[in-house]
Amino acid sequence: DAGVIQSPRHEVTEMGQEVTLRCKPISGHNSLFWYRQTMMRGLELLIYFNNNVPIDDSGMPEDRFSAKMPNASFSTLKIQPSEPRDSAVYFCASSTRQGSSYEQYFGPGTRLTVT
Amino acid sequence: AQSVTQLGSHVSVSEGALVLLRCNYSSSVPPYLFWYVQYPNQGLQLLLKYTSAATLVKGINGFEAEFKKSETSFHLTKPSAHMSDAAEYFCAVSDNTGGFKTIFGAGTRLFVKA
Q: What torsion, rounded to 10 degrees, do the Cα atoms A44, A46, A50, A52 define?
């Protein structure tokens, strides 16, 4: 069974450009999470969805960030315009259902570099 | 609100020695607790989880953790370190009061010396 799939694995872009990160959760999982990992701030939850509906986006840093989940098998995280401080590894994770006892399954991450 | 503190950002052990990674949590209700491991250039993967069953939880790769309510701790141990255990380890907590969010600790990087 395929795990969480993220694309691209690496993205290098110039400041001001639009960046779109993609995620395909594990089939049958109802919850999807977007995280950002940096040396300075560690692992930060940006937003999570349950049954394709955004539940909590309080971690989204600012209006330049947006996330969508048009269906159960696909989600995007968009940054427009991108800035050098957005450089980080972005992880997508999915879980079987919304619930505190359920572990999350992480994708391999997208390493974003904004120059 | 729940929170988790990992003591020590870096831990170094010799191969064959005991591994002890410390985690303390804060939660107003019975928590669910997790340990995840992250190898270089990979995502996090679950090592083990506590969900109010047995207080001693066994995970993959010989790791185990003990839930101690009186100490609000969930330390991760392994009797004998292997070179392949070198990675970053994250403790995490969630409960039903946090909107089902999982809060991750800052992580502890484990170094294993030959």
A: -140
Contact across the interface for B100 and A45, Cβ inside 8 Å: no
Contact B28, B44 (CB under 8 A): no
Neighbours of B114 (CB within 10 A): 6
Residue B77 to residue B57: CA distance in whole angstroms? 10
Q: What is the pLDDT along chain B (114 residues), one digit of tens a residue?
A: 778 999 999 999 999 999 999 999 998 777 889 999 999 989 999 999 998 778 899 999 999 999 999 999 999 999 999 999 999 999 999 876 655 678 899 999 999 999
- Report the residue count for chain B: 114
Inter-chain CB proximity A99 and B100 less than 8 Å: yes
Q: Return d(Cα B2, Cα B4) in angstroms, integer.
A: 7
- Residues 9 to 48 of A: which have CB under 8 A from any B CB? 31, 42-43, 45, 48
